[in-house]
Write a sequence for this structure.
């Protein structure tokens, strides 16, 4: 295929508006899969279980002498990084809107992502078979918000397949061919990559210039390494080997990349014969910043090494997570991981267990806070590496309050779409609980939202410490806005009471602010009672003596265990359950 016969397009939509269903229909129409198969592009177990798309997937389709490369994208706001990544490859998108729900927050966000990149947008109204479909009002929305005329909109039912073939023709007619040069040395960009247990890193690339085949020598720009290509192919949607990938094409490449960092998304691969200095690199893919951080530890400390490998490999497949080593007295060696949101975190945890068979403890997530240190050279030098502003990712790094001028917390700009009658409820919630997750549930799925980072704002932060019999257990400490401390203190103390078994002595659990020992909330766990009175009342007959001896030896063992562990015994599950969201 020459570039003029190629179209690279994506499908973007609000969650549940039918992307995966439409992708299935397009695959069937082009003969890539037999009819009736569902969710062909949702390959991950977690995607099928939750019915959401997490990873962008691709499929090479043939239609009327054209090669149409479909790049499927996730709809959930936590995975918008995946959307921008696939947009870097697309020259056009199908903007899918469900006829029964109309334009939603994610539709607007996706529209602007594509619009800013100058990508051709084809509006598609889906689910027109539903009784609740209101095509006219969706067309009005598309006209008012994005200036699409009703003639431009394609009306389909992805479920029944109605009008889906019109989409294929619209792609050929409206989406421009890729800007690619056939007659040039090979140059391409990695837009996605994953780790195959048998073959190492597999890079999904778009060929911008020249062509590539097995045996060619290539070089990477950022990592600056040279490889020999061992296989190239396309996704249909399964991997299918081919002899050559040409300019404008999307496909995969295997070349003995052994470490996970070599196939980083955004990397430029080029012919080893080209001069590195003359290579134009790709800047389309911006690094995304995590918004939520959480500690990740193996359940068994002996699993650390294997978990490390799993985390590294999963990160290759999901470059939007950030990983830094971490350690905890109670949980051993682990990592502090940055995620794009809480759903992203849950999916990461689920993928670790499903794809790598790892059992992990994911701690309570928290955002990144910052502190402006007082303008005092000696304090800054002595305690903060001379820095005026520090990042606080976990409570153990919380600075002494007397060193701090002000604390900062991250802000997000949230775009919400709510039916009028729900406005009161949503407004109330927003001002009350500083959180946006609950809104979706309360309004029974009618509301939608989208967010983007929006700088930092001063706030009063405190560190909430948990003391168990007067000793701080740092794993349970948290940083939070002062106004929320009292409620959180109560919850934590209650949860700990539920999790810590009675000991042979009294256990006092306190939640305090900073290094103060004044409790915001406090609870006492009474000691176990050992009542041998019945036995000692002289009723030694019928094996009584034997039972007494047994009890006494049990008690002794218990004592040894207590001594061995020093003070209070806390079961491992407590860390899981107390810290879990
Ligand atoms: P994410 O991958 O999570 O972003 O969702 P998605 O946009 O891929 O949605 P998906 O294709 O999974 O469809 C969501 C639901 O809508 C499924 O239950 C589909 O069967 C249903 N659906 C999709 N298209 C149609 C349609 O044209 N008509 C009707 N009635 N239902 C549809």
């Amino acid at each position: 295929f020459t570039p003029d016969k190629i179209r690279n397009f994506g499908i973007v939509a609000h969650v549940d508006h039918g992307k995966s269903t439409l992708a299935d229909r397009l695959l069937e129409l082009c003969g890539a899969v037999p009819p009736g198969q569902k969710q062909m592009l949702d390959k991950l177990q977690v995607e099928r279980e939750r019915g959401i798309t997490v990873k962008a997937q691709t499929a090479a389709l043939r239609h009327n002498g054209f090669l149409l490369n479909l790049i499927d994208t996730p709809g959930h706001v936590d995975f918008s990084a995946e959307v921008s990544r696939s947009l870097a490859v697309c020259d056009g998108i199908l903007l899918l809107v469900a006829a029964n729900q109309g334009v939603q927050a994610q539709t607007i966000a996706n529209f602007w992502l594509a619009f800013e990149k100058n990508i051709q947008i084809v509006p598609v109204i889906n689910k027109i078979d539903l009784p609740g479909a209101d095509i006219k009002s969706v067309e009005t929305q598309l006209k008012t918000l994005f200036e699409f005329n009703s003639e431009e909109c394609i009306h389909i039912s992805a479920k029944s397949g109605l009008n889906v073939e019109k989409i294929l023709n619209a792609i050929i007619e409206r989406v421009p061919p890729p800007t690619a040069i056939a007659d040039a040395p090979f140059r391409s960009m990695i837009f996605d990559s994953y780790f195959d247990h048998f073959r190492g890193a597999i890079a999904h690339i778009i060929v911008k210039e020249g062509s590539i085949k097995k045996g060619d020598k290539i070089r990477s720009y950022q990592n600056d390494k040279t490889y020999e290509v061992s296989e190239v192919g396309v996704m249909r949607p399964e991997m299918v080997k081919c002899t050559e990938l040409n300019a404008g094409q999307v496909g995969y490449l295997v070349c003995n990349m052994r470490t996970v960092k070599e196939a980083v998304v955004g990397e430029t691969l080029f012919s080893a014969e080209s001069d590195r200095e003359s290579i134009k690199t790709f800047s389309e893919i911006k690094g995304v910043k995590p918004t939520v951080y959480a500690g990740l530890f193996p359940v068994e400390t002996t699993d650390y090494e294997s978990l490390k490998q799993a985390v590294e490999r999963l990160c290759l497949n999901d470059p939007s997570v950030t990983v830094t080593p971490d350690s905890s007295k109670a949980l051993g060696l682990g990592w502090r991981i940055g995620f794009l949101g809480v759903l992203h975190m849950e999916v990461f945890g689920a993928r670790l267990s499903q794809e790598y068979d790892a059992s992990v403890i994911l701690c309570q997530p928290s955002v990144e806070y910052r502190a402006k240190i007082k303008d005092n050279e000696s304090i800054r030098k002595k305690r903060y590496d001379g820095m005026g502003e520090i990042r606080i990712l976990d409570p153990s790094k919380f600075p002494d309050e007397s060193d701090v001028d002000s604390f900062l917390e991250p802000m997000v700009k949230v775009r919400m779409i709510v039916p009028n009658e729900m406005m009161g409820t949503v407004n109330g919630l927003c001002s009350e609980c500083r959180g946006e997750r609950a809104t979706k549930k309360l309004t029974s799925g009618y509301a939608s939202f989208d967010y983007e980072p929006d700088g930092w704002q001063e706030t009063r932060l405190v560190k909430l410490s948990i003391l168990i019999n007067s000793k701080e257990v740092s794993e349970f400490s948290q940083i939070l806005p002062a106004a929320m401390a009292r409620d959180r203190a109560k919850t934590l103390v209650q949860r700990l009471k539920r999790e810590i078994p009675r000991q042979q002595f009294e256990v006092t659990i306190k939640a305090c602010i900073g290094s103060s020992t004044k409790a915001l909330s406090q609870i006492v766990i009474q000691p176990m009672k050992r009542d041998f009175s019945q036995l000692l009342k002289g009723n030694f007959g019928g094996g009584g003596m034997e039972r007494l001896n047994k009890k006494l030896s049990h008690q002794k063992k218990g004592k040894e265990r207590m001594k061995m562990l020093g003070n209070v015994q806390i079961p491992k599950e407590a860390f899981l359950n107390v810290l879990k969201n």
Q: What stands out?
A: The pocket of guanosine-5'-triphosphate is lined by residues 13, 15-21, 51-53, 74-75, 126-127, 129-130, 157-159 (CB under 6 Å). The CA atoms of residues 346 and 362 lie 9 Å apart. The chain has 15 helices and 29 strands. Residues 544-564 form the longest helix (21 residues).
